[in-house]
Write a structure and sequence with these properties.
Blueprint lengths: L1 E4 L5 H11 L6 H4 L10 H11 L2 E6 L2 E10 L7 H8 L4 H6 L6 E9 L8 H12 L4 E7 L3 H10 L3 E8 L2 E9 L3
Parallel strand pairs: 4-5
Antiparallel strand pairs: 1-2, 2-3, 3-4, 5-7, 6-7
């Protein structure tokens, strides 16, 4: 798999991949294989690509089969939820880890096409993103019911759990990782 920063011409394939992985499109069995809670449309992907170069993709034979956004808290200002989450990075568990809005970026959404899961795609995409990241920390949260994603973040990318987070009456686990050794 080839990893690179996304271009504007990749947006339709990125949106389609996210839609395929969105929780609303999956039956109960498919949700066990991981799911997205959010789909970023071209309206939100365009500035992430143009202004921050913060959309990363995995390609096989020119087809987008993996994607992730890893953008600054400034970029995420359009989201009241992420604005609130970013402001919450002053909690004791964040201070103990050393993470705050000034030294971190938010990772997500992240998805891998079903046919390419379990083949190192997540690890490759994360490692490519981590190396490109200029922030000291990458922060994310994963729905507690998304066991596959939690396992990938903790066991494959080595994120550290920071605590629990409630968003719109949904339970999430906060995770972070230092980008540089």
């Amino acid at each position: 798999m080839e990893f690179c920063k996304a271009r504007l011409s990749d947006i339709p394939a990125i949106v389609e991949l996210q839609q395929q992985c969105h929780v609303s499109q999956l039956d109960t069995d498919d949700k066990q294989d991981g799911f997205l809670n959010t789909v970023l449309t071209d309206e939100y992907l365009t500035p992430a690509i143009n202004n921050e170069q913060s959309v990363y993709i995995g390609l096989i034979e020119g087809q987008v089969v993996a994607m992730a956004v890893c953008a600054s808290w400034y970029y995420w200002q359009f989201s009241p939820t992420l604005t609130s989450v970013g402001e919450g990075l002053t909690q004791p568990q964040h201070n103990a880890f050393g993470i705050n809005r000034e030294n971190s970026v938010f990772w997500g959404p992240v998805c891998i096409a079903k046919a390419h899961r379990g083949r190192g795609s997540f690890e490759g995409l994360f490692e490519f993103t981590r190396k490109a990241c200029e922030a000291d920390y990458i922060y994310t949260y994963v729905h507690q019911d998304n066991h596959r994603s939690l396992a990938a973040h903790v066991n494959k990318a080595h994120f550290s759990p920071l605590g629990e987070l409630d968003i719109n009456d949904q339970p999430f686990i906060e995770l972070a990782i230092k980008t540089k050794a």
